[in-house]
Amino acid sequence: SSPAAYRLADGRLVVTAFNASLNPPSWWASVISQLNAQGINVAFVPTFLGWSAQASAFASISYGFSDWGTATPAASSAMQGDAAIAHNTYGKIYMMPVNPQQFRPKTFMYWEAGNSAAFRDAWMSSIQGGADWVQLVTWSDFSESSEVEPFTDATLSNSIGTGYYDLNAYYAAWFLTGQQPSITHDVLYYFYRRESTSAASSAQSQPDNITASSAENDIELLAFLTAPGVLQITIGGQTYTQNAPAGITSFKVPLQPGVPVFTLSRNGAEVISLQGGIQIYGEGGIPSGAQDLTYWTGSASQSGVCTLSTQP
Prior knowledge:
- By secondary structure, this protein is of the alpha/beta class.
- The protein has helices at 25-37, 55-58, 73-78, 82-90, 117-129, 163-177, and strands at 13-15, 42-44, 47-48, 64-67, 93-98, 102-104, 109-111, 133-136, 187-192, 209-210, 218-225, 229-235, 238-244, 247-254, 261-266, 269-275, 296-301, 304-305.
- The strands form five sheets. Strands 14-11-9-17-18 form a five-stranded antiparallel β-sheet, covered by helices on one side. It has a four-stranded parallel β-sheet with strand order 3-4-5-8, covered by helices on one side.
- Helix 5 (117-129) runs parallel beside helix 6.
């Protein structure tokens, strides 16, 4: 009866399940029957770890399919055709996963998200591939660093951790309306790690290992511009420059120790200058001795820097 529960126009309650293939279709059919007996009619949209291998077996009991996805740019782009397969082969809706990043300290594993690339590529697969729904993987799973929710920790500034959350609004609007939103004001986003993937990890029993991708160590400035401008990343006494057209531009430079400063200029005048909210450490690693391979983020426009609320 919760107003937050999603129902179809015909009144069916939409239900999903993570890694649904751990139980056979017959088990799920029994659950659905029990719910029906209580007057709860269900539209089942199971989420799989590799949906195409399970689709045929689950088709008869499913309204649609979803996949948990993988937080790498290549995997995010490769998903673009999945909705068409679900539609044309099975006559089902498809819920596309959009995943910002995956770093799992508890299992010493990470996937290479390429700064904001995996997140943006997954949204574009949703938009261009005709997905019916999108599942954000995830809103708040801090244990796997996949949260879209603004994030920081007690030792760091409240002016960081907003990048994926703010960026999400643009792509969600594009997906929901079918029209790319106009860029009405300049915004700079940054995405980078506190240390390289090869930095020392003296406090850990083993270093973190990459899964199914190649490690990247870059600082990214992602610019949404109303008109052409000059982008700059300054760090370690060196300034890197790139001319950018109106629209969306990703500008990357190698990760290096220091605190980066991100700048947009036009006609020799500074429009936005934003200091990254987190220090980058060298190969000796961060002071705790435990690796932090999270992509930390932030954003700013002419009106100011986005910050996290300190209100309870």
